[in-house]
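sry for the spam today, last one i promise. struct tokens for design, 111 residues
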């Protein structure tokens, strides 16, 4: 990234994505989905994130889906089965978040 890239205003899409990522619990959800290669059901995701409410998880998953980070699949079973998985963009973001988490962990160890 050059200095001129950093001074260029963000596009609306870039700004929207950063707003989504900055919302509470969003990074936890992305990391929880990234930890598994398969699709995850709502209850499985919630079990991986202590303290998140049903309502908040539902809201954040909807935001992530509309941002193109998570895909939602509804299977015509009885009862209906809904699963979530990271999109390609979501995978890229989750990899970057894992790197940030590693930097934070090594920073905490050195202090």
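last one done:
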């Amino acid at each position: 990234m050059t200095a001129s890239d950093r001074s260029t205003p963000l596009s609306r899409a870039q700004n929207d994505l950063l707003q989504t990522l900055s919302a509470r619990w969003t990074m936890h959800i992305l990391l929880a989905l990234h930890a598994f290669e398969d699709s995850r059901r709502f209850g499985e995701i919630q079990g991986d994130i202590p303290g998140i409410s049903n309502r908040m998880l539902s809201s954040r998953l909807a935001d992530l889906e509309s941002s193109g980070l998570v895909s939602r699949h509804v299977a015509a079973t009885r009862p209906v089965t809904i699963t979530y998985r990271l999109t390609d963009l979501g995978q890229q973001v989750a990899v970057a978040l894992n790197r940030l988490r590693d930097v934070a962990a090594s920073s905490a160890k050195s202090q």
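The helical segments are 3-7, 12-22, 26-34, 42-48, 54-66, 88-110. ok im logging off now
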